[in-house]
Amino acid sequence: MELLAQFGTDRQREKYLEPLLDGRIRSAFAMTEPDVASSDATNIATSIVRDGDEYVVNGRKWFITGAMNPGCAVFIVMGKTDPSAPSHRRQSMILVPRDTPGLTVRRGMTVFGYDDADHGGHAEMIFEDVRVPADHLIGEEGGGFAIAQARLGPGRIHHCMRLIGIAERAVEMMCRRALDRTAFGKPIAQQGVVQDWIAESRVRIEQLRLLVLKTAWLMDTVGNRGAHTEIQAIKIATPATVEWILDKAIQTHGAGGLSQDFPLAAMWAGARSLRFADGPDEVHKRSLAYRELRTYMEDRA
Ligand SMILES: Cc1cc2nc3c(=O)[nH]c(=O)nc-3n(C[C@H](O)[C@H](O)[C@H](O)COP(=O)(O)OP(=O)(O)OC[C@H]3O[C@@H](n4cnc5c(N)ncnc54)[C@H](O)[C@@H]3O)c2cc1C
Predict the structure, then answer these.
(1) pTM for this model (two decimals)
(2) Looking at the domain covering 146-300, what would its CATH class be?
(3) Which of 62, 63, 116, 147 to mutate to test the pocket of ligand 1 (most atoms within 8 A of CB)?
(4) Which residues have any ligand 1 atom within 6 Å of their CB?
C-alpha cells in the first residue's frame, strides 16, 4: 500500500490502493526467487518484456508472504526489463492481478514446519507468459531497485514494533512460569540464572524500544533516506535480540516451551525468520558498515 501510495499512478491507486485501504482485497510483494541469491536484488531474473501494449512476465518466485490467502488479489512483481542496463537499472516492478492467465500459486512454503496460514502463508509462484497491460508498470522501466529500497523502510519498522510486543509477552510468560514452578525446593524464579535472563530481557527490550522510537522519529522528520542507518540498525538488532529473549522464555518453560501448548515456539520461528525476511542480517551489516566507512574514505581522498 505504501509503495502504491508513493509510486503508483492515479489509475493504479484507484484500481488497487483504494480496495486495499478498504480491506476489500490484499496484496503481496514478489521479489525472492529460488534459483538466484535474492538478497542481492540485482540478481532477480524474472523477465518482464514489453510486447505492444502489454508486458509479458516469466519466472519463478518463492516465500511470497500473503500470497496463499485467496483474498490476495494483486501482486507487485519485481523482474528484469533490461538485462543490459547498469546493474541497478535492470529491474522494474509491475502489478499482476491474481486471476491473470499463466500465473500459478503453486504451494505454501513452511517455516520451521509452520505454514503461517494466519497471515496468508508464503507461496511459491510460477509466471508463464503472464500478460498484463503496459500501464501496470509501477514507476519507470529500470526504477524497480530504487522503489524496492524506498519500500523497505516502513516494512522493517513494522516488523520491529511487532517483535517488541512479542518480547513483552515472552517476558511476562517467563516471569509467570518461573514463579509457578518449583524445582530443588524453591521456585525457579529464585534461581540467579533465571533472574539474570529476566533482567537482561528487560534491559534489552528497553534498548530496542528506544532505538525503534528514534528511528520512527527520524522517518517522520528527515524521511526514510535520512533514517537509513537507524532502519538497518533496528532490522539487525531487533530480531536477534528478541530471538535471544524467546530462547530464555522457552528454557524457563521446559519441554512445554517447545510444544504446541504454548505460543513460544511459533513466536521464536517468527523472530528467527525475520533475520532473512526483508534482507538477511549480513547484507544490512555490509551496507551499514560501508556507510560508516565512507566518511573516513572521503577524508583520505
Ligand atoms: C518468513 C519469510 C517471509 C518472506 N517474505 C517475502 C516476501 O513477501 N516477498 C519476497 O520477495 N521475499 C520474501 N522472503 C524472502 C527473503 O526476503 C529472502 O529469503 C532474503 O532476501 C534472502 O534471499 P535468499 O533466501 O535468496 O538468500 P541468499 O541470497 O541465497 O543468501 C543466503 C545467505 O548468504 C549470506 N549472504 C548474502 N549476502 C551476503 C553478504 N553480502 N555478506 C555476508 N553474507 C551474505 C547471508 O547469510 C544469507 O542469508 C521471505 C523470507 C522468509 C523467511
Answers:
(1) 0.94
(2) mainly alpha
(3) 63
(4) 28-32, 37-39, 63-65, 111, 122, 273, 276-280, 282-283, 286
**What are the extents of the domains in the chain?**
2-140, 146-300
Q: What angle do CA 58, 59, 64 make, to 5 degrees?
A: 125
Residue range 161-192, pLDDT digits in tens:
999 999 999 999 999 999 999 999 999 999 99
Q: Is 105 exposed, middle or buried (0-12, 13-18, 19+ CB in 10 A)?
A: buried
Question: Which CATH code fits 2-140?
Answer: 2.40.110.10
**Which pairing describes strands 186-187 and 182-183: parallel, antiparallel, or unpaired?**
antiparallel
Q: How far apart are CA 239 and CA 285, in angstroms?
A: 14
Closest-CA residue, ligand 1 atom 42, reads 282
Q: How far apart are CA 293 and CA 296, in angstroms?
A: 5
